[in-house]
Amino acid sequence: MISLPLLGIVALGFAAAALGGVAFGSLSYVLSLMQSTVFAIELLHSLLAGALLGVLAESLTKVVPLQLVIFLYSLASSVLVAELSRRRVPQDVAISLLSSLSAVLSVTSAWYLAYITPVGYSRAMAVVWGIALLVHPNDLAYLTLVALLTVVSILTFNLELKYVSFDPDLAYVSGLNTRAYYYLVYTLVALTLSATVKIYGVVVAGVLIATPSVISVYLLRSYRVGTAIAFSTMISLAGYSISYLTGAQVSLCMGVISLALLTTGTLIRWLDGRRPNS
Amino acid sequence: MEDVGKSVEFVDVYASYNDSYAAENVNLTLTSPFYALLLGPNGAGKTTLIKVLVGLLRPLRGYVRVYGRDPFRDRREVSKLLGYLPQPGTSRPSPFMTVRELVAVTLLSTRRPPRVVGRDVEEAVEEALRAMEIEGLSSRRLSELSGGQLQRALIASVIVRRPKLLVLDEPLASLDFDAKCDLAGTLYKLHKEYSVDVLMSTHEMASCIRYEPLVILLNRRVVAYGPASRVLTPDNLRRTYPTMSEVAGVMILGEDHAVRSAR
CATH number for the domain including B110? Predict the structure, then answer.
């Protein structure tokens, strides 16, 4: 028999899993659309650095929220890469620069956290792996707002984002403010990461922001935002359910499901390619 | 569009991507109506001039006017006046976008958000696809198109806005000869029937020459410009293409450039 308080905790967890799935699904669609592999690499580094800096700031000040630091650091690093690239610094150089900076900040923050407080390091690790079984109602409210904003923005500007991804110069000459669209994506990514990292953890946030759309393209040849959202929500909810039932880490369950779907897709495509007249 | 100037002007334009000038001291006035070819060897500054004209690259010196408008200061107005086609291969033909969406979003780009595909847009898209004879491809994804089909889809996306000026950067590249002639003919038809001014850079002229284009010979500077019959002289060609071959009274510039030499 599940007690009422426990039921509330579980309901909060499932709601967070569903909302996170929606936000990640729509963003993974945009990143797939923009073929931003290098951006995703930079994103993972900045996500880790932002999260560890956030825990450090929270521990030191007691007032600066983790979410704010993650949002600001993710946004600042994406904007910095974009602006350096605009100023004729090769994109791979800009990304390497920011990734190195993020790596230094991650290690330094983790070391300092362990140094200043006995529980600092374990708090940092909780953010890396996620604490999805314990969702605070405030975190859920923030996630709801972010998920709504992300989906509405992407559905509203879907056509423009497709055009900017197809050819930014052409879109600019046609009259679109291409820079504004890139910044919109960076902002949505930073917001989503800030709203989900505490719940999902850095590891799974990195996986979920990239894979759902890839899986929907690979398995179903679907290029729709709805399919990416469906896959993302499914991975998220299934991961949460398995974690709840087995007691395994949520990030581990979600990672395993993503891996299984991608492996199945690869296998199907490979077998399809081996068939004569395929 | 009210109060539109009559010409496209380059005044003392110097432009560069790196440290050295890709185009220097370019002075040129193209008075409407025109069907013009920008010819020159690789590195002559054709793409640079086009990027300056459409507002993608600021000139280091001098200025450009598109029917009296500055492409940087008056970007919104200029974007309504011109249609631009980048060099083939620079776009990423995405599986996420269909031909119909490409044409629709190009039309909607000059409007303010939210950009909704309404009935007027649908009709304009249909008409543009018909004009380019690709109605059957409207639901096709861009990644599924051949090079020639993609060029047609891009041109449909440009003409749907009924621009005053079409600027095309090597639109004939990577097409076979029939497709080149076909496309050059279509562009000429647009010029004649819809009074669209056309400026295209190209390495080949055989497919366009029957339309008696205005020719601009460029090698960082404008070597000569005027009607093809007057500009394409052995002397001008030698100055434009210093490394070309001359054998037995014939100058050979490339696969389809052969001009009877004066010698």
Answer: 3.40.50.300
